Amino acid sequence: MNNKINKKETNIMETKNNSEDYHKRYNRAIQDIHAVLCNNIVNIDEDVAIELVKYDEDENVTDEPYQLFLIGNETDAKRFAYLTDGVYIYSNILDLYVCGVYSFGTAWSYVYENKNV
């Protein structure tokens, strides 16, 4: 049994555990895993749009992915989903994994409020 973890995988997993904010983690995941942004994938594989919608029974709401990424193998898809708090599925039509990202992690400091304090 091979218990070696390659340096790239260790760096990616450590990234989520340290104090790096979501935006930096997200950008690093894209660079390290070579994920390709492809929001129009739903025009080619409609099942992707259906399968990546998350439903919260407690609050009776659905959540659709903000962005969709194409990823070449399951190991990278798992890591990408882990780092971005996303979900991944396999597309038979494309023979690729598709990862849905549901939030870009917008900080409250970027939300404009017109109120005198």
Beta percentage is 15-25%
Q: What structural class do the secondary elements suggest?
A: alpha+beta
Number of helices: 4
**Average predicted local confidence, pLDDT:** 75
Helix content: 25-40%
Order of helices and strands: HHEHEEEHEE
**How many strands, what sense, and barrel or not for the largest sheet?**
4 strands, antiparallel
Cα gyration radius (Å): 16 Å
Overall domain count: 1
Low-confidence stretches: 1-10
How are the strands of the biggest sheet laid out side by side? 1-4-6-5
**Number of E-type strands:** 6
Q: Note the gap between the termini.
A: 61 Å
Label this structure with key terms:
117 residues; alpha+beta; 4 helices; 34% helix; 21% strand; disordered N terminus
